[in-house]
Amino acid sequence: MVEASADGAPVDPPVDASVAAARRAIRLIDLTDLDDHSTADAVESLCGRAREHGTAAVCVWPDFVRVAAQALADSSVRVATVVNFPAGTDRPFAVGVLTERALADGADEIDVVLPYLAWLGGDTARAAAVLDAVRRTCGTGGATMKVILETGELPDTDAVARAARFAVEHGADFVKTSTGKTERSATPEAVGAMLAVISSTDRAVGIKPSGGIRTAADAARYLDLADAVMGDGWASPSTFRFGASGLLDALLAVVVGDAPTSPGDGYRDGY
User: Fold this and answer.
1) Higher pLDDT, 108 or 141
2) pLDDT tens-digit profile of 50-80?
């Protein structure tokens, strides 16, 4: 039976909280294809899904930035790519050149891996050189710079917090947990440490949990954490992203009422 208002007009039924949360999370996704065997056709398909469902961005290899930019030219979906990826060991000059090429091809956002091994070993100059090269190329008011800390490879949350502060000091617009290419990716503990750093900065910095985020429950956990630290309404596409490949399917299943019976059902492993 359809409910009606006092004047007889039909009233839309209330939206279930889990559905509302899923819809909220969808618009925060950087829909990602960083598969080693990705193709232009796969990227075009990814862009079609991003456009259809209104994700924040797509994230693809630098080789496919031009393909993505053309496929999304008349949409609000942004194009992100990765540099110094995934090991974080490329030379600063090479990172800067690849960043410049990606921006020329149409990238809106650059996800750069912090040279975390060098940084952990005390070579902060090399780490700074890489981040500074990307920051200079992105410009102060142009492309978005997201710094991947690879938190699963850092020894503890204190190191995560120090890495996040280092990234912010060198111009990060976002700090991001992981490449999705290591055994351990995003964790609530790491994201909590990063949010604590963000909350104490004197400029706007966003956060991007990524790697291993595959279910609606995963997404809700990180959004609840952001709400608790930063306040309700803070998490928007300009401040919060999920880096994920299978998460969109999980969230759409909630929206249409066809969620899988167990967290892993129906979703491939990966980023």
Assistant:
1) 108
2) 999 999 999 999 999 999 999 999 999 999 9
Amino acid found at 175: V
Say what the pLDDT of residue 257 is: 84
What the chain holds in terms of domains, given with CATH numbers, is: 17-255 (3.20.20.70)
SS (H, E, C) 103-117: HHHCCCEEEEECCHH
The partner residues of 81 in beta bridges, in order of sequence, read 60, 110
- pLDDT tens, residue by residue, 75-93: 999 999 999 999 999 999 9
Residues recognised as catalytic: 111, 176, 208
92-to-97, 147, 150, 209 alpha-carbon distances in Å: 9, 14, 18, 25
